[in-house]
Amino acid sequence: MVNRVILIGNLGRDPEVRRLENGAVVAKFPIATNENYKDKNGTWQTQTEWHDIVVWRTLAERAESTLKKGMGVYIEGKLTHRNWQDQDGNTRYTTEVVASYFRIVSGGRRDEHSDNSGGFSAAPEDEVSAGSSKPADEEADSSLAEEPGNAADDDLPF
Question: Which of 26-40, 48-62, 94-108, 134-148 has the lowest mean pLDDT?
């Protein structure tokens, strides 16, 4: 069984970060993805979908320090559903992506480590896996850590 989500989109706002009583850190932020298509009249349309992203621990701290509204970001994680009672006693439901990895792909800081070219050329400190402070390409398998332009890019849908 597999529960894996991959999204590439733009942050709708800066991450909202909370520090829980047990010391855990959690960050939440929305990202927007766009799909372009031709309608029945042949006119190009853009459909925007919003996705709620949740990151925990060191990944949340990294999101707090590096992610800003409008940035392009690549997200990997799993789809989760949860419910809760609102103030009126109604059961509410939400669907979120709990991210285990993110990478800035455009619109980032302008410094000596980032060229903001829109490709997968973010600085190593922008690549973080959940539960680690190491760059993700030190932990990822070789198929995910290949450089742009290698054969692995042939599988990408963009």
Answer: 134-148
Structure tokens at 7: 């999204």
Q: DSSP state, 59?
A: H
Neighbours of 15 (CB within 10 A): 23
Cβ pair 126, 108 in contact under 8 A:
yes
Q: Report residue 86 as tokens.
A: 């609102």
Whether the CB-CB separation of 65 and 87 falls below 8 Å is answered with no
> Tokens at residue 140, please?
């990822």
Radius of gyration of the chain (CA): 17
Bridge partners, residue 53, by sequence: 29, 97
Distances in Å between the Cα of 88 and the Cα atoms of 81, 93, 110 are 21, 14, 46
Phi first, then psi, for residue 142 (nearest 5°) are: -65, -25
- pLDDT value at position 93? 96
Name all domains of the chain by residue range, CATH numbers in brackets. 5-36+45-155 (2.40.50.140)
Cα–Cα distances (Å) from 137 to 47, 87, 142, in that order, read 33, 44, 8
- State pLDDT tens for residues 96-135: 999 999 999 986 444 434 444 333 333 344 344 444 444 3
